[in-house]
Amino acid sequence: MRERIIMAEKQYVCGYTHCLHYGQKILQSEAVAVGSRKYHWDCAAQKQQMERIKDTYFSELNEVAPNKDEENNKFKILGKVLNDLIYKNDLNIDYVEFCVNYYASYKKKFKSPLILRYLNGNKVMERKWNNCKGR
Ligand SMILES: [Zn+2]
Question: pTM of this prediction?
Answer without folding.
Answer: 0.87
